[in-house]
């Protein structure tokens, strides 16, 4: 069922971020078994700044998209995140032959990309590079993670 956490209590002058994970585009979307996304907030050294959360398994798969439509509550006020922090989204799925859950790809959003409304972010090849040093795009095709951001400010 995932490990989603509730929204933090609001604080005057502080901003909370809800991210709705709409869908992810993958060329083999239909073949992914029990896909879900792990969301984490990391500093430049790859250290967790908030608890890691997993979405429930995707709602449906159609064509080249895996649909989630899940809200993630980021567990820290935006103003309290360190400079250079980023929000990571790791797309994971079950591999029956190997009997384990594998990370297929990842995406991330940097602090300057936090603004209300829709955003699409590029997908990168695994392994997940939390330090963002050696990034390789997953594919030349235009496949993205589709998100919608909601900012809550007191």
UniProtKB/TrEMBL annotation:
Q: Which domain of life is it from?
A: Eukaryota
| Gene3D superfamilies for this protein | C2 domain
Q: Keywords on this record? A: Developmental protein
User: What biological-process terms (Gene Ontology) are attached?
Assistant: determination of ventral identity
Q: Give the C2 Aida-type domain ranges.
A: 5-152
What does UniProt give as GO cellular component? membrane
InterPro entries for the chain? Aida_C, C2_domain_sf
Please verify whether the record's keywords include Zinc.
no
One GO molecular-function entry: phosphatidylinositol binding
UniProt xrefs under PROSITE patterns: C2_AIDA
Q: Which residues form a coiled coil?
A: none
Question: What is a single Pfam family found in this protein's UniProt entry?
Answer: Aida_C2
Give the family this protein belongs to, as stated in its UniProt record.
Belongs to the AIDA family.
Described by its record, this protein's role is as follows:
Acts as a ventralizing factor during embryogenesis. Inhibits axin-mediated JNK activation by binding axin and disrupting axin homodimerization. This in turn antagonizes a Wnt/beta-catenin-independent dorsalization pathway activated by AXIN/JNK-signaling.
Its recorded name reads: AIDA protein
Q: Which organism is it from?
A: Baryphthengus martii (Rufous motmot)
């Amino acid at each position: 069922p995932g490990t989603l956490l509730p929204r933090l209590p609001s604080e005057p002058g502080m901003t909370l971020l809800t991210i709705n994970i709409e869908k992810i585009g993958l060329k083999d979307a239909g073949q992914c078994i029990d896909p879900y996304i792990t969301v984490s907030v990391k500093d430049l050294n790859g250290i967790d700044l908030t608890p890691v959360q997993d979405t429930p398994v995707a709602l449906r798969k159609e064509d080249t998209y895996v649909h989630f439509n899940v809200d993630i509550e980021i567990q820290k006020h935006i103003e309290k995140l360190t400079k250079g922090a980023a929000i990571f989204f790791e797309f994971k799925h079950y591999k029956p032959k190997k009997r384990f859950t594998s990370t297929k790809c990842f995406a991330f959003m940097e602090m300057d990309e936090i603004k209300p409304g829709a955003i699409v972010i590029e997908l990168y090849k695994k392994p997940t590079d939390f330090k963002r040093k050696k990034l390789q795009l997953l594919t030349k095709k235009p496949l993205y993670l589709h998100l919608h951001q909601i900012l809550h400010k007191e």
